[in-house]
Specification:
Layout: E1 4-12, E2 15-22, E3 31-37, H1 42-48, E4 65-71, E5 83-86, H2 96-99, E6 110-111, E7 122-123, E8 140-143, H3 146-149, E9 150-152, H4 159-162, H5 165-177, E10 186-190, H6 194-205, E11 210-215, H7 218-227, E12 231-234, H8 240-247, E13 253-258, H9 263-271, E14 273-281, E15 304-307, H10 314-326, E16 335-340, H11 344-352, E17 360-364
Parallel strand pairs: 10-11, 10-13, 11-12, 13-14, 14-15, 16-17
Antiparallel strand pairs: 1-2, 3-4, 3-8, 4-5, 5-9, 6-7
Length: 365
């Protein structure tokens, strides 16, 4: 077996390059995965732009689809050569947070300003790939706590069909799950990027009868309809808050899902809520949020605001792949471009600038 591999690493702000790195050694609880497909996430763009700090030389990426190359001697129930995925969040389930019902927060702590070179705090939680350890935009990735995190890919599913499961699908569905959706509810999803589209699909699966998708891109709004949206609003053409209040007869929506991470979308998601409604926040925010007094009903509106980090672990991945295998949704529609690992710099440029109708790119080592 070769000893070196290609990997996309963070060099400095606005610079990610493909370099040669040693193939990781496999410890007793690890698995070495040969990556067959991975992708670029919006969080990776935050890293590229220097908005989220990681160590220089770290391999980026957190969405692995591949084949088991080598297993640690303590890992049972898997075989080398088996097709697998692992969640972007890879908990070991030993922490207080994991055993208290929040496995995505496994090992969660905050690094104070100055210790990580960032402004404010860096939340680490259970996100290790491309954050605390080398990630997936490489020919190989080392999966820690492999027995807790590897999920076999069902026969008949392609890499592209399961590529959304490690992060985008898990995150979007968690946004819908956190929105307290009941059968017959009206739900609005702000932003129809990949996570917002998955939140739209998740709201439909949970029983919402009216789903309103909001975005400024008509192409994405068309895809939202395929994912389950009943109504679409382009914020460039209307006052979204006014339109939603008209649609609901002044009642407001039962749930709103914010999938972008800006003050304006967060505030709009709060303003359209009914009394007692739930705002489910999925966006990664890069500055302080302000909660307007009127939108928050001065704290008297019985509103709930839930935040989420993508759930990981093999059981979560198994369930998500079951949804894909059932044919209830087709997330392969979201893979709009393919690149070789050698061309990942061009893929970042395309994805970060949202050119050519891109939703997600498949990176093939």
């Amino acid at each position: 077996m070769a000893t070196m591999m290609k990997a996309a690493v963070f060099v400095e702000k606005n610079r990610i390059e493909v370099v040669d790195k040693p193939i990781p050694d496999v410890g007793p609880n690890d698995a070495l995965i040969r990556i067959t497909t991975t992708t670029i996430c919006g969080t990776d763009v935050h890293i590229l732009k220097g908005e989220y700090p990681v160590a220089k030389g770290l391999t980026i990426g957190h969405e692995p689809v591949g084949v088991i190359e080598k297993l640690g001697n303590a890992v049972q129930g898997y075989t080398e050569g088996q097709r697998v995925i692992a969640g972007a969040i890879c908990p070991n389930f030993n922490s207080y947070a994991a055993q208290d019902g929040a496995p995505s927060q496994d090992g969660s702590y905050l690094i104070p300003q100055g210790l990580c070179g960032c402004h404010g705090f860096k939340a680490t939680a259970g996100w290790r790939f491309g954050n605390l350890i080398d990630g997936t935009q490489a020919e190989y990735v080392l999966v820690p706590d492999a027995q807790a995190n590897l999920a076999p890919i069902p026969d008949g599913l392609s890499d592209e069909q399961v590529l959304m499961c490690p992060d985008i699908m898990s995150t979007g569905f968690k946004g819908a799950e956190n929105a307290n959706i009941r059968i017959g509810d009206t739900v609005v999803v702000f932003a129809q990027g990949p996570i917002g589209l998955c939140a739209t699909a998740g709201a439909r699966l949970l029983g919402a009868s009216t789903i309103i998708a909001v975005d400024g891109n008509d192409h994405r709004l068309d895809i939202a309809k395929k994912m389950g949206a009943d109504l679409t609003l382009n914020f460039k053409n209307c006052d979204v808050v006014d339109e939603i209040m008209k649609i609901t007869g002044g009642r407001g929506v039962d749930s709103s899902i914010e999938a972008l991470g800006t003050q304006s979308t967060f505030e709009a998601a709060l303003r359209v809520l009914k009394p007692g409604g739930t705002l489910s926040s999925l966006g990664v925010y890069s500055s302080d949020l302000t909660i307007p007094l009127s939108a928050f009903a001065a704290g008297l509106g019985d509103h709930r605001i839930n935040t989420a980090l993508c759930p990981g672990g093999k059981e979560r991945m198994r369930r998500l792949m079951n949804v894909v295998a059932s044919g209830r949704i087709d997330l392969g529609l979201m893979v709009t471009h393919q690149f070789k690992l050698d061309d990942i710099v061009a893929a970042y440029e395309l994805f970060a600038n949202q050119r050519d109708g891109v939703l997600k790119v498949a990176i093939k080592p």
